[in-house]
Amino acid sequence: MPRVGLNQQTVVREAARLADEVGFQQLTLAALASRLGVALPSLYKHVRGADALAQKLAVLATAELATEMTTAAVGRSGGDALRALADAYRDYALRHPGRYPATQRVPDPADPEHVEAGERAVGAIFAVLRGYGLTGDDAVDATRALRSALHGFVTLEAAGGFGLPRDIDRSYHQLVASMDISFRSWPRTGG
Amino acid sequence: MPRVGLNQQTVVREAARLADEVGFQQLTLAALASRLGVALPSLYKHVRGADALAQKLAVLATAELATEMTTAAVGRSGGDALRALADAYRDYALRHPGRYPATQRVPDPADPEHVEAGERAVGAIFAVLRGYGLTGDDAVDATRALRSALHGFVTLEAAGGFGLPRDIDRSYHQLVASMDISFRSWPRTGG
DNA sequence: CAACGTTGGCTAAGTGGCTTAGCTTTAAGG
DNA sequence: CCTTAAAGCTAAGCCACTTAGCCAACGTTG
């Protein structure tokens, strides 16, 4: 029986593709194994198990998302940077419906790559907020606010939580516009 | 063998309690059955299955959340109403960590109780926004924005997504304060 | 109060996930 | 060519959900 020649990277990458097709919750080791042309237990030679796979997928997706946010915002500032970052965020979530939920896993301190990806993602947001003059505690609060708004929106959208016919793109742009207003007049605490 | 005397309501209620203790994802028919003093398949006399239980739990939790938001906002308006509603929202999510995720299930059109609960929840938010003079498309956009912000925040908080030491209560209050500012100067579209 | 039908409980059995143990064979390197 | 690490395999077990079919308790009705 000829070897397929897998390694951790190919396994995780295929898991990402599969997750985008069938959904994060429906990503199963059985489906992944059959997709890769191996028996299910063979995956354990490359990944410690289902949970470890989810964690590695989180690293991949978080790194991708961080890169896309950073790329979108680079060379811009203020509302321009905010809009670019926000669009990149939602684009990623829509283009990668299986990977996006994986990004919500809190970084594993034992995995430097994961920690680094998480820092890059938060750092991209932080950088945009610096363009509004927000630093210290204000920047922390504002980062949390922006993450909450973006994450909440794309999550509700993906879940089909927006029932009414009103155009969703428009609602998102309004949300981002309102965050722009908020950041320009952020309730300062002098952090 | 004496009967335990279950019905759908007792089953769903106990499921809610159990979910709050062990988490929504860890809510299992096996655990629920043993908690109720019954063999697992007996639950099927009261609930169609695991998915149907999740749906009934969604109805319960959505109705509770809607009631708490409505109660909090009644008799208030503007920023006052907003803060009261937002606090009620997060309080519920923190007090009921197992029920809260259930509320995210999109209402089943075939279950009038579910639809009604969902409408009451959205209606509570809508009512608060009317206090800002927001109606029509503006109100739809603003509702989506507020839901996104609140849901995103409590979800990230519950997931442990806020790593930094900065006080989380404070960040939430800042978020709500910034939404207040946004709603007062909402980017109008003339809906 | 007895018979009956409904219903709420049960056991047994099947499916589909994940995981571990232990074997075989490939392929790479001396 | 021989050795060995690694990559695949099968077998088997666990746990979740689900269905089928049986039996006993309870309420109703004659």
Automatic annotation (TrEMBL), chains A, B:
The keyword Magnesium is assigned to this record: no
GO molecular function, one term: DNA-binding transcription factor activity
Start and end residues of each HTH tetR-type domain: 5-65
Organism encoding this protein: Micromonospora noduli
Domain of life: Bacteria
DNA-binding region residue numbers: 28-47
Keyword terms of this UniProt record: DNA-binding, Transcription, Transcription regulation
Pfam families: TetR_C_33 (PF13305), TetR_N (PF00440)
Stored PANTHER family: HTH-TYPE TRANSCRIPTIONAL REGULATOR RUTR, TRANSCRIPTIONAL REGULATORY PROTEIN
Keyword presence, Transcription regulation: yes
Alphabetical list of SUPFAM superfamilies matching this protein: Homeodomain-like, Tetracyclin repressor-like, C-terminal domain
Name of the molecule in the record: Putative HTH-type transcriptional regulat or YobS
